[in-house]
Amino acid sequence: MEDRNTLMALEESLWLANTRFDPDLMDKTFAESFVEFGRSGRRYERAEMIFESTPHAVIDAELPLQHYALELIAPDVALATYTSIVRYGERVERGRRSSIWVKVEGRWKLRFHQGTPY
Question: What residues contact residue 74 under an 8 Å CB cut-off, 6+ apart?
Answer without folding.
Answer: none
